[in-house]
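Practice record 12: protein with protoporphyrin IX containing FE.
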Amino acid sequence: MLMVIYVASLGHELMVSQKTIEIVKATAPILKEKGEEITRRMYEIAFAERPDYKRGFENTWMQDLSGNGQAHKLAAAVYAYATHIDRLDELATAVNHIAHRHVATRILPEQYPLIGEKLLQAMKDVLQDAATDEVIAAWAEAYEALANIFIQKEKVLYQQDDRELTERLTRLTTLEH
Ligand code: HEM
């Protein structure tokens, strides 16, 4: 049964079951080890199917010379979520930062399902037997719950952007007249 966990510091609800919380937390050790292999595989299959999704990553190194980069950052975020899924308040700063990066690179709500699908596929490809149906079902629910929080947060940021732009344009046109 889905629980509604209100994450005060984010002002949004996380919809996951207690079972999902337990399974996701139990996957944290293997995600610490294999996380970056999974996210690199995820980007590989996502961009193969949707090359247009590469847009937005132009200014991002997938993997820079120090071995970090986008795949590393996403792996760290997935691991942090696995260890903090039942205390998401502690990740509020990181979630807000990511939401701003997504808005800056114009990420859209309709892009989340495909990335989720490819993340689960990559988990299966890399974790093999450890990616049981139960683990994949739990991560599908956990991903959707987190994606909903990002989508709501980013909607607010886009509206804010639009308002600021409208105000700026109004000011400009007023100055011209
Ligand atoms: C729950 C799902 C997601 C999580 C946890 C996530 C996580 C992250 C993280 C950790 C970063 C790096 C932020 C930084 O620079 O410090 C990031 C940036 C980014 N993400 Fe996501 N993301 C998610 C969904 C998506 C989706 C659906 C897309 C669409 C293709 C996307 C595209 C991007 C892009 C373009 C950047 C910016 C790269 C830059 O900074 O130039 N993300 N995301």
